[in-house]
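Rotation project, supervised by the postdoc (A.L.). Task for the rotation student: set up a whole-complex structure prediction and record inputs and outputs verbatim in this book. Inputs entered:
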Amino acid sequence: MAETFGISEKTGDGVSVVSATGEIDIATAPPLRRQLEASIDRGPAVVVVDLLGVTFMDSTALGVLVGALKRTRAAGGALRIVVSDTRVLKVFEITGLTEVFSIFATVEDAVRG
Amino acid sequence: MIDRIELSLPASAELLVLARLTAATVASRAGFDVEEVEDLRLAVDELCISMVEEGAGGRLRIEFVRDAGLIEVSCGHEPEPGGAGSVTGDPTLRDLSARILDALVDEHGRDTRGGQKRAWLRKQRARQEA
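Outputs recorded:
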């Protein structure tokens, strides 16, 4: 049984950490996009997208992250991704997006940059 | 022996999980290894995404055919009678989706049959049966 999708956010010291859990697909990508847009629009210097609890993601999830990256850069901030699951990391690798995103293994590392 | 499984679902984003579950089950029964099962699960999801545009309505008809170590999957969109019947994807997402399919399956493509759009893929199991 797939883990239930969920989103949470933690902010402080100019950093916003948006954590997602479960499967990010065409059904669950829209709420993630809305959350990221809201977080970015508050103007933190760094937005960290924590995908440690994500068990599946597809091209719609990547599309959300690409949109978030563009929005963050336009606002003068930085967006960092946290991934450890090899299946999730593989989606970034096969689409060439490991060259586009700053990807970290832990939230702490991503916050430090 | 050839196995054939058909799913007919409302073209709803929330129901694509059923296509993924079926893909994983079919691949596992065909002797695909864990990584190949996950590859097919993602590939079938990508195949169906292009056919599910929220609000487009209609139904998805997904067919899985297993012949020894080869799995063929097709996903067709049957528009609602009198509905818009047209699915148009975001070009960026379509490019990302194509890159994923290129990496995960042996062949994939799209066509139109009887006025209905269809996407398909073929994936061969790497390990040969003893």
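Student's summary: Chain A has a mean pLDDT of 95.
Supervisor addendum: The longest helix of chain A spans residues 59-74.
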